Amino acid sequence: MNISKKLGQFKQWTGEKLGGAQKTETSEEFKNLEHATEQRKAEYEKLDLQLNSFVKSISRGEGKDKDRSPMEAFGSAMSTVGNTLEASAYTKALILVGDAHTDVATSQRTFVNIVKDGYLEEMNRQMADVKDYQRLKTKLENRRLDYDAKMNKVQKAKAANPALEEDVRVAQSKYEETLQDITARMISLNANEEDQLTELCRLVDAEVEFFQAGLERLMQVQKEFANIPRVRSGNNRAEYKRSISAASSLYDTHRDSTSHTPAFTPPLGSNASVGRLTRSNSGFNSGGGPPPLPNRDPTPSRSNSKQTRALYQFDAEGPGEMSIRKGDLINVIEEVDEGWWIGEMADGSGQRGMFPANYCEVVEAPAAPLPPYRPPSTYNAGVDASPRLAAGNVNASGGGRGYPAPVPSRASYIPSAPVPSRPQYEDPRSSSAGGAAGGTCYCGCAEFVENAFKPGQCRSCFHNKH
To answer: For the whole model, what pTM was predicted?
Structure first.
């Protein structure tokens, strides 16, 4: 194309944009056909892009495995791991699944070849027609501009010019020729769906066959899985966690017992004991809101007997949990772990469940009444009292009833059962008596000193020897 022709087309295009030049218009039928073709062209381009991406994703891998499909590479990796590691139920399953995926990849390769030779090839032909249509559209626009430019030039001429008229006839002929070509191409694009439908049916048949083969192969693996023993991984993890928790508890106990021995432990009901337990179990600071909830993955632990008071409100969020309100008294049934306890409401409602330990403080449980003291029938009130009695352990002024004074509370002991046996006690007079003490009382103490006036009875507690 020469420079003068190109310049004439540019002038014509500029005149049309500015509204001063006349433009050759196509028929309404041509415009409708062009609109339908443009819409089909845009949709075909989207379909072609996704079809090629689909075929590429199932037929080629990445990196070193670009010559193998992703499924084939995946199956090969599983088989390799199963054959390399020590034989177990898991490695056996890896080999079965890996071999199955390799077989399915073979069927997949057959399916991909059918798609490439059929539907993908037909789509490539359609895209070639789309490109040809786009080329003819550009050519038609250029020839229309050339034809309109020469026509406007003839109309502006003051006298007849045979050369200009000949140029107009040639430009008109070329424009009409291109118009016919693009019309035929648009008709072909919009009417050529039969071949595409045929190839699409072949694609579906091949895909169904591929999925059926893959399903049968995987169902075969599923049947073979029935012969492989299965262990619930959740139980294994829980058992492992319990073993770690037990080992940690043993270490903490050993560390606490070897680091220091306290000279005195305050009673549970004392303020010091409550403060210490509150700080160690609740884990909250005095100035803020409720502390963060502990991890909801409890492991069974020891059971305990204590009572707590709720410091914050807690709403149950899962099965087995119990909602509590500030001020509620809760009897602890079991300490699941350091963060969660199981308890029952102390109001008699019978409501029980799991609650966060750090939302509560430990309080002193109400003491159970002690069993009445019953002295033996051979009790001699006139016998000289032992140092224990002289110290005021027996109330002799209370109407002669002979009840012992209340046993002092011991550290970490909540009276909910009969008082345990007394601690070992050595009477200072036993050594001076030249070994007169022999045997133990029926109550279990080792302070027996035989009464010289009542053989078989103890000078200290007046119990019979056994």
So the answer is: 0.47
